[in-house]
What we know:
This protein is of the alpha/beta class. The protein contains 7 helices and 7 strands. A hairpin with a 2-residue loop joins strand 2 (52-56) and strand 3 (59-64).
Amino acid sequence: MKARWWQGSLLYLLILVALLALAFSFFQPNKGPEEVDFYKFVDNTKSGKVDSIQQDGNSIIGLKEEKPVIKAAFVGSTKELMDSLKDSGVKLGDDGVKFEVKTGGFDWGSIMLSFLPLVLFGALLFFLFRSARGANTQAFNFGKSRARLSSGDKPTVTFADVAGIDESKGELQEVVEFLKNPQKFLVLGARIPRGLLLVGPPGCGKTLIAKATAGEAGVPFFSISGSEFVEMFVGVGAS
Length: 239
């Protein structure tokens, strides 16, 4: 019971975290640098809004106090970029704007933050499918029922132990004969009934005479009460 409570709480916690992560991923404000053209990038740099420039592939990023503020596209080598900035009046170096080339690498923090909602959503689906599979396994796990087996090799109950229902014993005697010597009946084309329905109030001897039938025929007897059935399909079982 404690395990079920713990699993249920973990499932609800995963659902809550997944929803929060998705909301954070979709609705968080865009805090990236403003994208401008090269000429506006130069103007912002000359006006003092940028104190360092970083080249990242085909992009240049303007930073103010180490925070990205503007971004522009530039296709060319590092030397061509530096020459274009100098020709536009931007001072580079110790007396001007700091310039650096960003080395290749992965921003693992951003990558993990991007994939976190997907991971949580996958974990949620895993728990849901696992719960559904457990329910289906329980539904079709009839082979592991709690039916009790009485061996037919050493019968403990026979018709001699049943009194007061001679008519029922006479009808069941035919079933006993079929179970003892089925070949004799099969030659004649007879088939044993699929089942027998014993009707009566509780305590009238239905289970006892069924067990006696198995004992007379020398076959195993399985017994299980209706309350021990696990409902496998809607409308079938103890309910």
